[in-house]
Each structure stands twice: as C-alpha cells, then as structure tokens.
Design goal:
By secondary structure, the chain is α+β, with helices and mostly antiparallel strands. The protein has helices spanning 3-13, 15-44, 48-75, 81-95, 97-112, 193-207, 209-225, 259-276, 302-305; strands at residues 120-123, 126-133, 137-143, 152-160, 169-171, 178-187, 236-241, 246-255. It folds into three domains: 3-95, no CATH class; 120-171, SH3 type barrels (Roll), CATH 2.30.30; 178-276, Alpha-Beta Plaits (2-Layer Sandwich). Strands 4-3-2-1-5 form a five-stranded antiparallel beta sheet. Strands 6-8-7 form a three-stranded antiparallel beta sheet.
C-alpha cells in the first residue's frame, strides 16, 4: 500500500483523532493570522494609544472567533450552542474557578472602566502604573517598596484580574487626575510669623497655579457626578503651636504623577526665601533644655594618691 492509502486507512480507523488534529491545525492557522495582524498594526500605527487599542481589539475578536469555530466544528451547527455552553461552563466552574473569575474580572474592568492602561492604582496591596490589561492579568509597573515616594521600583507585576472582586481598588487618576498632598514646616518661636505665612502662601500659589486652575474644572465634574461635598482647591495653610515650635501645615493639590517633584520645588523655594529674610524667620529643630545639673559627690582616696 502507498503512503497515501495508509493515511486514508488510518483516518477511517481513527475519525475522532483525525477530527481533533484538523481542529488543532485550524486553531494554529487562526492564532497565526491574529499574530500577523497584530504585528502589522504594531509597525503601521505610530500613535501608542491607538496601536494598543487596535491590538486589543484584534485579540478580543480572535477569542470570539475561536469560540465560534470550536462550537460549530464539534457540534456541527449552532443549534446546540446552549447545551454545549452549559456543559462547558459547568466543567470550567468546577476545575478552573480562578481562571473564570479572572476572565470575568477583565470584562468587569472593561465594561465598568475600573481602570485602564496609564492609570495609577493600588490593588491587593500593590501600587503602580497600569501598563497592560489582558483577558487574565493586569500588568503594572510597581511603585514604592524599597524605593521612597512615588518612584518606580523597576519590577513589573502581573496580577490576576480576579482581585477586582476581592478587595478595594484605589485609582489615583480616574475622573480626577489630581491628589491632595501636604507637608509640615517647623518655625522657631520668636520668628516673624506673619512674614512666614505670606512667604509660604505666595510661593505655593505661584508654584501650584497651573495645577489649581486645571483641577478646579475637573473637581466640578466629580461633584456633579458623585455624592461628594465641594472641597478647597487653592493651597491652604494651617498653624498649630507645639512645645518646641510653631508648626506650619501646607496643604495643596497636585498632579498624581508629580507629587515628589512638586514637594521638592516647594521646599527649595521656601528654604531660599527664609534664608533671604536674614534671621527674621528661622526653621526650628528638636532641642533639649537642661534645667538643672544634679550635684555630684566625689570621694578621693588620699592614701592611694600619696
């Protein structure tokens, strides 16, 4: 018998295995086509946002196409769709609970717009910038850990989308891409307090004017959309008296990605202005005052000294 005849004979004897092989070949063709289209879009679209959305759209279409192919191939027609989906879902619900929850989470993230690539979020105790959201995982560029403030640690974290159902999701940029920040300045007693107040407010107002102006319109949208009271957007200064100094607390609004840089600029400008007052304003530090030194009695052994 020739090779072709042997193959035909094997196919007649093993129809089910041959059916599976044909389906795998079809599956590989579809996956390769999707990958080729994604590669083509990657080279032809220069805009990062449009390229990302186009690639994700092709990926979703590919998943839908594969599901339809699997149903029509093994059932022979679409009429058995409900039965097949029921059996398929029951099996997956028992064996792949976490996977199903991750896929459901990705749909929830997409439909409800919990977050999107470019947002800064904190979920399951991990904070970072979202750089990708696929059907199973959310990928983030981590912030913090051993690195202070809002700097990248350099680690890329993949987190299951199922976590959107398991705890709170903190979004630093959704609807309102600004956050409130503050820091304290200790001013020594005896300094010109009124002059210090005017310097700090002046510097804060000038440095933060762009953020203040842009955030006011954004905050109005938040107030109209949610049940939240109106808030003070302009920089505010609160003073409290402590045992050691007059504490100035500056509170202000800033872009969520520029918190560390803006705090540095404010501190540097305030430091230079205080220095230029030539002693009228002095920064305080923790001091210890000795009220009384206890009496000490010293006994000297005269015999040994002689």
């Amino acid at each position: 018998m020739t090779t072709i005849e042997l193959i035909n004979e094997w196919i007649k004897d093993n129809p089910f295995i041959w059916s599976i092989i044909k389906f795998i070949i079809l599956l590989v063709i579809v996956l390769m086509t999707i990958q080729l289209i994604r590669s083509y879009l990657k080279t032809k679209i220069s805009n990062t946002i449009i390229r990302y959305k186009a690639q994700k759209g092709i990926e979703i279409i590919g998943y839908v196409l594969l599901i339809i192919l699997a149903i029509t191939y093994f059932s022979g027609s679409i009429k058995d769709f409900t039965i097949i989906i029921g059996l398929f879902t029951a099996g997956l619900a028992f064996t792949l609970q976490e996977l199903i929850l991750s896929i459901a989470g990705s749909m929830y993230i997409f439909l409800v717009k919990v977050y999107k690539p470019g947002d800064r979020i904190e979920i399951n105790g991990i904070k970072g910038d979202v750089i990708d959201v696929d059907s199973i995982y959310t990928t983030m560029m981590e912030i913090g850990q051993w690195v202070s403030s809002d700097n990248y640690s350099g680690r890329i974290v993949k987190l299951s989308n199922a976590f959107v159902f398991k705890g709170p999701v903190y979004n630093y940029s959704k609807d309102f891409p600004f956050i409130w920040d503050e820091f304290n300045l200790p001013i020594r007693y005896g300094s010109d307090i009124d002059l210090a107040k005017s310097i700090i407010i002046k510097i804060a107002s000038e440095t933060l004017s762009e953020y203040t102006t842009n955030s006011k319109s954004e905050w109005k949208s938040v107030v109209n959309k949610y049940y939240v009271e109106d808030a003070q957007i302009d920089p505010t200064l609160a003073i409290s008296l402590t045992d050691n100094w007059v504490q100035f607390n500056l509170r202000y609004i800033v872009d969520f990605k520029k918190r560390r840089y803006v705090k540095h600029i404010l501190n540097e400008k305030i430091r230079l202005e205080i220095k230029n007052t030539k002693g009228k304003i002095l920064l305080a530090s923790t001091t210890i005052e000795l009220v009384k030194i206890p009496d000490l009695k010293v006994n000297v052994d005269q015999t040994k000294s002689s």
